[in-house]
Amino acid sequence: MLHDTPELLDAVRARFAHVDSCPFQAPRIFFENAGGALTLKSVVETTARFAAIPDNQGRDNVASLALVETINRAKADLAVFMNASSGQFFAGESGTELLFRMIRTACINAPRGAKVIGSSIEHPASRSAARRWADIAGLDYVNVPHDDATGLVTAADYAARMTPDVAVATILHASPVSGMGMDVAAIARTIRAVSPECFIIVDGIQHAAHGQLDIDSYDVDGYAISPYKVFSRHGYGIAWVSDRLTALPHDQLIDAPASGWEFGTRDTGAYATMSDVVDYFDWLGGQVSDSTDRRARIEAAGHAIHAYERQLTDTMINGFGNLAGLRDMDHVTILGGADNPAREGLVSIVMRNMPSADVVSILNAQGIRTHTRKADHYSGNVLTPLGLSDCIRISVCHYNTEHEVAQLLAALKDIRA
Ligand SMILES: Cc1ncc(COP(=O)(O)O)c(C=O)c1O
Fold first, then answer.
1. 352 CA distance to ligand 1 middle (Å)
2. Cβ(179)–Cβ(395) under 8 Å?
């Protein structure tokens, strides 16, 4: 496993670009993974290779056929990675744009007077889309309040607001502010128990890097990820849509095949990097299990990532050697509580008597990258009810080390002194 095999951790780190230094800053520890994870070196190489190819898809020449084959392979890889035995994957401008497109499609096809349900824990990407298109389509929006103390929304919270006329539902898989993961399968089950035909769209953008994606088990209709947050790069998003969402009339060119979702010429290199990401999970799974089955290896990688990230955040919270953890620093408050089992690789804190932005810049000056979340239109939904104007977000990934966490704890101790 990752936590007791230093050679494996070295091998993992060797696969990522800029793992311990920033091209603009020199050595740095990267705890801003929720803002964009490190990029696989294979993704950088693939991107450069495809950027140089002038050919377009759909032509009768070998280059064009190779491009189409690359896209088809990436879609097949994504189906294994995210365990989707039906439906289809496609690329769009960003995770946000894809959430808007899926939610818009579900809303404008819903019967007038029906309802859209979503939760206050969601990122504005899905909340804004649901509210805007509910309004335009003449639907009522139902808000499921999340629990401020745990930074979570549960199936029981959705159950309390569900009615049979809910036609569209949105679910956040993991929060980039509280750091907590929701039980998507349980929430979807609860929704379907009351409104079986409801279209359910999931924002998986923050969750994807933490492994364990399993669309078949969720029983939902749409799932969006942002590849730069799962070891690929910026410039596009990836969505999975169910066959029943595809069957709804949706934006596309006149007389184009009815099942299509893509707009215009596709970036083959973008798709190709998703195969690199899946190959990486497959490789990691082979290091932590003996399985000969690709999906089983990807699942093993997901479990190893989750367990190791748990260890990293526990170390941050409980301390390391003789270094006090966040829970023992009386000037520090941990959002969502110190012992929250739903935590996914992210710890948000506030320090008494010091604005979060100041803490982030002091850490930055010491080469430790974290991020300030402000109570603005991105994070106000989580911070304002807690009476907070900001917080410091520390987000890890499985390539971070306990030594890096120890350096963070030492720096935070000194900030207080
Ligand atoms: C949960 C969640 N949803 C949506 C977004 C927006 O993603 P993007 O900017 O890639 O569209 C983010 C970005 O941090 C996020 O964490």
1. 28
2. yes
Q: Is 32 in the pocket of ligand 1 (CB under 6 A)?
A: no
- Alpha carbon distance 344, 339 (integer Å): 12
Per the prediction, the chain carries an average pLDDT of: 96
93, 96, 346: which to mutate for ligand 1, most atoms within 8 A of CB? 96
95 lines ligand 1 (CB under 6 A): yes
Cα angle 388, 394, 400; round to 5: 170
Candidates 369, 105, 400, 39; CA nearest to 251 is 105
Beta strands per DSSP E along 293-378: 319-320, 323-324, 332-334, 346-351, 368-369, 371-374
149-187: pLDDT as tens digits: 999 999 999 999 999 999 999 999 999 999 999 999 999
pTM over 0.85: yes
Does 205 contact ligand 1 (Cβ within 6 A)? Answer: yes
Would the CB of 226 count as within 6 Å of ligand 1?
yes
- pLDDT band, very low/low/confident/very high, at 417 (cuts 50, 70, 90): low
Coil vs helix vs strand at 303: helix
Full set of structural domains in the chain with CATH: 2-39+296-416 (3.90.1150.10), 45-278 (3.40.640.10)
- Pocket lining: 119 vs ligand 1, CB cutoff 6 Å: no
Residue 197 buriedness (CB in 10 A; 0-12 / 13-18 / 19+): exposed
